[in-house]
Queue: 3 jobs
Job 1
Amino acid sequence: MANELRILILEDEAAAADLLEWELRRSKIPFKARRVATKADYVRELEQFAPDVILSDYTLPNFDGLEALSLARSRIPYVPVVIVTGSINEETAVECMKAGAADYVLKEHLGRIGPAIHGALEKKQAEARLWQSEELFRLITDNVTDLIAILDLAGRRLYNSASYKQILGDPQSLRGRSSFEEIHPDDVARIKQAFQETVRTGIGQRGEFRFLLGDGSVRYIESQGSVIKDDKGTAQKVLVVARDVTERKRAEEELRRSEKRFRALIENSSDAIALLDPTGLVVYAGPSTERILGHANEDFVGSRVFELIHPEDRERTISLLNGLAQNPGHALRIECRVRHKDGSWRWMEGTGKNLLNEPSVEAIVLNYRDITERKLAEVEIQKLAAFPLYNPNPVLELSTYGGLTYFNDAAQQMARALGKSNPGEILPPDLPEIIRTCLETGRSRANVEVHQDGRTLSWSFFPILVSQVVQCYAFDVTDRLNLEAQLRQSQKMETVGQLAAGIAHDFNNILAVIQGHAELLVLEPNLPSHMAEAMKQISNAASRAAFLTRQLLTFSRRQVMQPRILDLNEVVGSVTKTLNRLLGEQIALQCNYSTNLPQVLADASMLEQLITNLASNARDAMPNGGQLIVSTFTTEIDEDYAHDHPEARAGQFVCLGVSDTGTGMDKSTLSHIFEPFFTTKEVGKGTGLGLATVYGIVKLHNGWIEVESRVGMGSTFTVFLAAARARGGTATTLTGKSAVRGGNEVVLVVEDEVALRGLMRSVLQHHGYRVLDASTGGEALTVWQGNWEKIDLLLTDIVLPDRVDGQELAKEMQKQKPRLKIVYTCEYGLELGGKQTGLREGVNLLQKPFQPLALARTVRCCLDDAGQT
């Protein structure tokens, strides 16, 4: 047990399970344990955990050890089950052992658990070896065509192979019967004598006899007997291996009869026969000449055969016949084209033999046949043979019994690539059943997937009923399956992002109303202090909720970006100043900066948030401390790498790597880590938006993120950002909280949310503005037509419920009044539809949810900005 054992513990009491694990460690058994307490968990873990040993309590709520034992025996019969119980009587213990338990241990004697496990494993290994030996014997005897029987020294049958069924019926029904019962009466005495001589001398005897079957028919049998001796050399049994030679006997008889018909067949042969003199003159032609060449016998006899041979074949054929004429008794094969009477050229295949010295013949005997159709078929066969031979994919042919009768070079290369020497080693494990089903039903079997050393092979099987073989083709679909899985993950994340954006859209409108009215009430001079405090708490809660929606918007790539040319090293250096406080004393922070790092076009605050979120995630994965490594480096992505990673693209990229020495993640967790609200932390210790925000930030920057992690081995997150050339210009955002100057201009407010529209009207009127409002684009155009000359600023949501959105509305109004000021409100930010080029937050863009002062400040800033129209 040098390797770690997987031990499944079925125990409803945690303390008892802990004590059991303690005893296992004390016994110095290397193990990995998993505890279950219910039947459903137990059944699931039998398959998923795949234990080497099961330790089961005998008494469980609504469940007992015998039922657990039965479930294990039916699903994983070669895994030992040890019953561990507080008390058990002798009768129950016997019942458990009869049911298949490897052992039982009383909880008061847990010191036996180590020896019990060792003994159970040794017992199961011995049973497995015995089963394999018996199974090998069964497979051999069940699949041979010869008749195998084991007899006692009196000739009674102790065992008969399955092949006996074809002759004498059910092999089981023959057991105990005399092996001489079915032998023909005329052969019994001779075979009995040979059997007794074998037993007496120990020397096997070969014999031939007849089986007289129940229907009166006779089968000829050829057998060989040999003695099976014990350790002392004493004969115990007799092994008889026989075979049915009835068909051979019949063939021999047929051969004798055929010799009688030989002369008649020669005269009536379907092949043509001709006799030639040494100069090629035809002196005799058989009756088939006219059928094959179209020439009547009287016309063909007396002609020179060389004159009918194709010019391209004539010289070679004349040379062959001249040589044959010089060698009496010799024979040779001739193949050439001969002119038919109708003028066509026909391929002939024949055999010539020099019987010039035979007095009864005195000629060269030429036996020939028309092989024109065969020649055409050979051309077609060569074309067909080229398909599997030069096919870049593996092509194989299998016999009825699964034997490999053909494979092409591609199959051999695939086997070698998988570390196998023979293509037969990469075929599906249930191959015999597939072949049997294909040949019995005549239907093909496609897309049979086999996993070999990390690769997935897809096999397709096609029965060829005429020849009773199955042809199969293989494709390595590993890369396609990986790409499909990555594509599905990408599509899932896109769908979840759209859902998150939709939720944030509606939630932001609600938060804007709550936060706005709360702050307006706080500004009331006569508001009681306890109510003012309550309003502040409402406002603070709304702000925290707004932060969550901003995270959702970041994940869904709907957040406002303020990109500028950055040095990633500087961003990392800036944010790591605060990481030590975030990580605590138990985690060592190491930063590896790459020199000559290209710049990137990015939002600095978003990158800082990304690094902070990844560091926070790493901290939570290292509850007992560890090391966090933050690295920057440059990489060049080529087309091959991009082909294998759907999110990647070719080019130069600046990378940020964040590695930890924490607990790591399994494949199931890795497939969900970027989903909003997915978390493995305890309730109340995480929102599940940290990595979702990271994913959104990376996507906003047109990059991608790759994760490598193994349970117990830590995790590495690598962010890929495109290298950029330096360029000027930065975004402008006004965030000050100083007093806002009002005005008396006319503002048209367009907002479909009634409560939010009312709040905006109140805030603007509070600052002295005259306000007109509308809920849709169509309604706004109606208000505009009657008041366009006095309207100074349009304050509109970019997304409106009717066909006219905010930008189209502004464009329509600016046709009539080009210098009209525009402010957009939007929870989707700059990325929506790609239409918001040139928008600046705090100048002509207001992101929801917003504070009343931010609304007043943005309107004032837009009205005062001479360059904005």
Job 2
Amino acid sequence: MNTVVLKPAPSTTLASGWRSLAVLGIAMIIAVVFVAMFALRYFTLDQQVFGQYWPRRGWLLLHVAGGMAALLLGPGQVWLGLKGERMTLHRRIGIAYMTCVAVSSAAAFYLAAHTDLGWVFGAGLSGLAVAWIVTTGLGFAAIRRGLILQHQEWMTRSYVVTFAFVTFRIFAGITQASGVGTLQEELAAASWFCWSVPLLVTEAVLQGRKIFAVPRR
């Protein structure tokens, strides 16, 4: 009996060349700048920095610390996975990344349930945590079953959700500059836009590449 070995077609694999390196490099630069400008200041334990979250500063620090670490670990982790190099290091960073996601998500659920910004903001933050757990969890499940392409795609989605720490600032700035509502309404909108819009764009790119890679009949 002949044994048939199935290999993924070239069009179904994620690009791992200079374009991917450039995107991940830019993401890393933005992540470092964001951490330096916005995240590290929380560790000064200045009450004014925490604002209304001062009574829940421990939970906020867990959320920020986990998110900050995941944000910085992500680009290197994705690049090693795309290149298929130094897989032992890739797995170790992956475990650290998933631990950071778990810790930060747990803190996010607590903060969402105890926010002073209203239930819409809390729901957006909860949605972010759910999306983070689902995308990361499916990425882990895929690699455990040897589904490399699916693992790459889900971990790409996971890092896009991680990047919501950055995009929240961007969307919050846009909504506040547009003056579309009260501060509470603007932050509530940003809590949804910061992860749902980038995730939609990412999905369109991932699936669009597969669709347009198939020649017309």
Job 3
Amino acid sequence: MFALAPPLPDFRKVVDVCCGMGRHARVLFSRGYSVTGVDRDIAAIIRARELAGGPRYIHTDVRDYQPDACAYDLTIIMSQSFGYFDASTNRNVLRDLAAGVRESGRVILDLWNGKFFSAHQGERDLELPSGTVRETKRVENSRLFVHLDYPDGEYDDFEWELFGREQMTLLADSMDLDLIIACTDFDIAVGPGAGNPRIQFVLERRSA
């Protein structure tokens, strides 16, 4: 897994965006990286600061986060935490994050795989201790829509912009990034396909 690789001397300064309670940030810190975690959930940030580990944490919305130019060697966004917004906002978020990595620095995105969800649309029941949750998924105009109906009558709606290799290449190119790896299972030897719900991209910032 990229985020859990041994310390790399050229990529020691890392920002974990949408870090939640700092699961990845703490592991990276324990392996010798200098890590900053960013999340808009104040409860998650408070909990992250309470847990042992040592990363620095910033409470802010990713849409408002503008790191200093070239502040980091590496930006990571794990667990499908990129793509929540409209296409324009997603582009702006990535552009700001890309500006925060140095030349030849990298951005790692762990996203939902559009090919998988295009092949797995429809309804399914999820059996939980509290009862049955009905999940409905559909893909429309390169976006994944997920609707959840809970046993108590409540519901949630989620959506993400989906990116394949071609779409990510075009997006990256527009902000002086090169797509250098597209894979699944965090294994550079395994190309993305319709059999896995997750896809990882590694983008590298071009030298001037």
